[in-house]
Each structure stands twice: as structure tokens, then as C-alpha cells.
Amino acid sequence: MKILILVNHDNTIYNFRKELIQRLIDEKHEIFISSPYGKRIPYFEELGCHWLDTKLDRHGINPVKDVQLTYLYFKLVANIKPDIMLTFTVKPNIYGGIVASINRVPFLVNITGLGTAFGRFKLLQLFIRLLYKYALRNADCVFFQNTANQNFFINNHLIRGKSVLLPGSGVNLNYFSCLPYPENKELSNYDRLDFAFISRVMHDKGIDEFLEAARYLKTTYPKLFFMSVVFVRRHMKINLLLWKKKYHFISWNGNGYKNNFGTSPLRRSSLLSRRNV
User: Fold this and answer.
1) Do the first three CATH levels of 2-165 and 185-272 match, i.e. the same topology?
2) How would you list the strands of the sheet with 224-231, edge to edge?
3) Looking at domain 2-165, does it have CATH number 3.40.50.2000?
4) Domain definitions of the chain by residue range
5) In CATH, what number does 185-272 get?
6) CA angle 45-66-121, nearest 5°?
7) Which residue, of 18, 53, 217, 257, is most buried by count of CB atoms within 10 Å of its CB?
């Protein structure tokens, strides 16, 4: 069976879907991955996947680029003639769903979140709702990661057919194995406790609450140590400057708050070996 997978970033499938893809390959399916190029792509090519270079602006709202993306999806479907399509994230879900419906290709949709666009202007929200309603009208199944998203789509009549609530994306416990709790002289007496916040810099992820709690607790418990390891998107950099102004303790030094703002890969052993929470 030919399976066409549409994603907006190679990390999306590497971090959360590589076990699924490995299983599909083990079952002798032919896998095509449509994604912008990234450093994870060679990994999937070595598995035997076909990579399809797809230019995609994940957070842009330029209609011309979105029309170009839709046209590209049409070309991919015409050339590959997939037996089924699997889509992840907003733009692949919407424009891939439209293309699959028009070409009468069975497709499965995974709603991993509402996306940042739902938190922007109301007019944009309305437009995206209309697109979702049109794109998902013939979806064979829509998978959701949480009840809030599922209820949102059902209550707003954005889906017609079957929907399934997944118990999360799943965690590979062989890779993300439990680490021993930090034990050393410094921590054994609880003179110091380390907290790590690992996330993208987004209001919805709780970065505001983390920083506010850090500021409040640090005044009472000076030996607490807070670390934030975050991924900063381009459109969020202005927020980072505002946070630095509001929370004056945010700095690049070890003043009880070590903030690693950047896009470097997360090294679990070195990062978490001394974290308590």
C-alpha cells in the first residue's frame, strides 16, 4: 500500500511518529513523506521512505503561498496515486484534506492542536474554521490528542464523520528512559532544588506562569534554581524581549535563573541529570 504522509516539519514525525513509520515499513507499506527538508530526513530515507521536498510556511498567512502549497499537494497526489493519506498539523490537514477529498483519496487526519492561528484575530479564526469544515468533510477518521480539541471541532460542526480520541502521542520508553533522582551532597540536604521548564516559547505552554512562579518563590526560597530550555519561533522573539523586561531576573548568567533560549538539540542526560522537577 502506498501511504502519503503530509507534515510541516521533519521533527514532527521524528520526535512523535518515527515508531509508527517504522511499523508501517515493517508491514511492507511504501511510505512517502512530504515535508520541508530538515536534518531528520536522511534518517527516514535510510529506513526506506521516499522524501518529497515541500516548501511550507508553517506560521505564515500569505494566501498566495497557501495556494501554491495546495497546488503542490495536487501534483504529489497525481504523481504518487497514494492508496491513503495521513496528515499532521494545521496546513497539511487543511490543504491536504482538500486535495484528498477532491481526488477521492481516503485520508486520516491527526489534530495535534488548534495552532497559533486560533489565538489571533477573530476573522482569521472564522476563516480557518471554514477551511477546516470544508477540508474534513470527507475524512475517513479524525484523531484528536485531547478532549478540548475534540469538543471544539464537534461543537463547531467542523467534522461530520468518525473521530477518535488518542491517549496522547505516546512516549518511547526505551529512548526516554527514567533517570535516577539526583543525589549528591548539595541536594541530599535540600539546600537547593532545581526546576526545569522545557517547551516552546508560547503563552499556551505556560511560560508566563513558570516565570511568575519563579519570581515569587525565589524571594522566599533563594536556593531554588529555575531553568527554562525553550524553542523560540521567529514571531515570538518580541515576546521574549517583553518577558525579559517584565521579569528582570531573566538573564544569561547563573543568577538562580538559567535560561537557554535557542534551537539547539536537547541533550537529556546533561540537562536532566541535576534537575529535581
Assistant:
1) yes
2) 193-200, 224-231, 257-261
3) yes
4) 2-165, 185-272
5) 3.40.50.2000
6) 120
7) 257
- Name, in order, each residue with C-beta under 8 angstroms of 29's C-beta and a sequence gap of 6 or more: 1, 2, 3
Distance CA 101, CA 98 (A): 5
Residue-wise pLDDT for 41-92, tens only, equals 999 999 999 999 998 877 777 888 999 999 999 999 999 999 999 999 889 9
Q: Report yes or no: 97 and 135 within 8 Å, Cβ to Cβ.
A: yes
Average pLDDT of span 27-54:
93
Q: Beta strand 30-35 with 193-200: parallel, antiparallel or unpaired?
A: unpaired
- Which residues, listed in sequence order, are joined to residue 139 by a DSSP beta bridge? none
Rounded CA gap, 250 and 165, in Å? 39
pLDDT (tens digit per residue) in 204-245 = 677 778 777 777 777 777 766 655 555 555 555 555 555 555
Residues 101-136 have pLDDT tens digits of 999 999 999 998 776 655 555 777 788 888 899 999
Q: Specify the pTM.
A: 0.75
Residue with grid cell 480557518, as numbered in its chain: 128
